[in-house]
Amino acid sequence: MFDPVILSLKVALAAVCIDFFAGMAIARTMARKDFMGKNVLESLIILPMVLPPTVLGYGLLILLGKRGFIGGFLLENFDFQLIFTWWAAVIASAVVSFPLMYQSAKAAFTGVDVSLEQAARTLGARELRIFLTITLPLAWPGILAGLVLSFARALGEFGATLMVAGNIPGKTQTIPLAIYFAVETGDTAAARNLVLVITALSFAAVFWLNWWCRTKVQTWKKGGTEHAQGEHH
User: What whole-number distance in Å separates Cα of residue 20 and Cα of residue 138?
Assistant: First the structure.
């Protein structure tokens, strides 16, 4: 029972790393730039959230398969078959969970006061320093929310993963796949235990996020009250 749990955590963490860096870059660009076709591009980014996982899995299968653009390139040049590996599960999970990271990050970057960034530019600060010292700290709560939600979504990914990674015990069998096939084979005890594990992991992630956000809000309110009292005196 432990193999699917460990693999699911590994796949979800790897998928979140991909979502984090890609989501940050794309979300900040979309929040700050206007260009032709922006609405079309944003619709494509969010599309995995509403498409059936099997549709996404089929698209990834065409792309990552032996004759696909990416899969064929890797097989021909590096003798590496991406399909039916745990990396295929990572890609499927990253694609499915990416819209959650993107939307949270974009909302966070949109909420940052642009005048603060502009003031730093007038003082001679470079873009990287502005991003690390002003933009990122102010947007971090929203980015963190996206990370937690995308992690929980990646942890529970099933349909697309099954199509591109298969159900190979010890290699590509994640918790959702193990639950499904345990039920199919009548192993209700294993299915029940895995359901409890993935429910506990997802609940812990969301519970921690809610607790962290509530603690931050209370800290900000306390700091604002103390500041106002200091000005009054």
Answer: 16
